[in-house]
Amino acid sequence: MSNTASTADNLFPDNNPGAEAAVELVGEQRAAVTALLGSIGEVVTELGARFEAAGQELAIVGGPVRDALLGREVHDIDLTTDAVPQRILELVDGWADAVWTIGIEFGTIGLRKDGHQVEITTYRSESYQLKSRKPEVRYGDSLYEDLVRRDFTVNAMAVRLPGGEFVDPFGGRTDLADRRLRTPGTPEDSFSDDPLRIMRGVRFAAQLGFSLDGAVKSAATGMADRLAIVSAERVRDELVKLMVSPSPRVGIELMTDLGIADHVLPELPKMKLTIDEHHRHKDVYEHSLTVLDQAVDLERQRGMAPDLVLRLAALLHDIGKPKTRAFEDGGRVTFHHHEVVGASMSKSRLAALRFSKDVVNDVSKLVALHLRFHGYGKGEWTDSAVRRYARDAGELLQRLHVLTRADCTTRNRRKAAALARSYDDIERRIAELEEQEELGRIRPDLDGNEIQQILDVGPGPVIGRAYKFLLELRLENGPMGKDAAADELRRWAAEQG
């Protein structure tokens, strides 16, 4: 703990961790903490007084304190205490409107009071054994012991209740001002305690715009393989937060540069130096990051909320290129059917990370469809082709619009403008057909019961074949009307014998 010893000596007389001293705040920082207490209302003040009367400590800790000092909106109320979980339950019994114990195994009790949700966690430290996927939790008896085991100094600050004294033993305020991520102790000890903190560091970099301290970077690189003992679900949750952050590219680049991606998304670093035949000025990895950036920008321009599915598809849309790369005469590089291979690869990777089935299927479908537009040319597609494009995309059509536009990274302004005009045109045509025909709900002009009546047959495979035939007609010709569809169905049936 050499990087924090002098700070701790100043705050804790005789280096006694039990003798926490409050840190004096001034100006905007004092106002921020006052605002934090005010935004939470009487709930935490009452709770703090309740714990104090019982001889127990209670403090706001971690994220809420950090966000208040950054001027960010505070959503979660995280509290820490020297009271063990059973004692917490006794102290909130009859006071809280509701209590839940789903996290009691890790020392956490949740409650709701006057519309506020609060989590109270006993002072603790936790660590992983070499091959263990579950941390060992030990309760502590001082706020200092709890703060020193936190992931980063900016999350190792606290506000005592009910008095509002500010505690910052590791210089979190200074690191906030410098927008830097350091660990309270050595980063090796911190990452050993919980390897997921490696992912959390790159996520905070993307989410808060912070940089990683040099020692933190070195430890992350040297210990990235420890992520293997962390459950896929916890890794996924950090990746989700990174991807929907304001600057996901920052986190992705850090993951790749520090060797973290090798253990989370190993397909990403493999895209480096794989020259894209359409964008020779960039390799596929750089191109994919640019597409991600442009997708984020287009989201904002269109008033969309951060879209996990769209952003994952933008990052992974060319994931199949390394496997499909081929060299032809004249030095030309091709990646035939990389969208098909990429759809399969993205499905496998996201499933391994325990993403929901809907996310897995939607991302892989966007990857499979991302090249379809390139056959549009200058508007040569028939209405039938436009209908099929919209129908194949289905509910993902708006995301496909954004992904396809983002996939244009050429520096040739004339070419970029032409592509933009072409996509403006296809969106216009889809909108017109949508207004006329409800493209998202295209069905044949006859339903299954009507097909049975016209053909005078019961349920069976022939009805499915007939339905498919009529659907193709509908896509090709647009609405036909029931009489015309019935005539075509009878003609088809005769040809089928």
UniProtKB/TrEMBL annotation:
Q: Which residues form the HD domain?
A: 284-403
One of the protein's GO biological processes: tRNA processing
Q: Is DNA repair set as a keyword in this record?
A: no
The answer, when asked if Transmembrane is one of the entry's keywords, is no
Q: Which InterPro entries match?
A: Bact_CCA-adding_enz_type3_sf, HD/PDEase_dom, HD_domain, HDIG_dom, NT_sf, PolA_pol_head_dom, PolyA_RNA-bd, tRNA_adenylyltransferase
SUPFAM superfamilies attached to this UniProt entry: Nucleotidyltransferase (SSF81301), Poly A polymerase C-terminal region-like (SSF81891)
Q: Enumerate the CDD domains for this protein.
A: HDc (cd00077), NT_ClassII-CCAase (cd05398)
Which keywords belong to this entry?
Coiled coil, Magnesium, Metal-binding, Nucleotide-binding, Nucleotidyltransferase, Transferase, tRNA processing
Q: Pfam families under this entry?
A: HD, PolyA_pol, PolyA_pol_RNAbd
Q: What PANTHER family does its record include?
A: CCA TRNA NUCLEOTIDYLTRANSFERASE 1, MITOCHONDRIAL
Q: What is this protein called?
A: CCA tRNA nucleotidyltransferase
- Organism name: Nocardiopsis ansamitocini
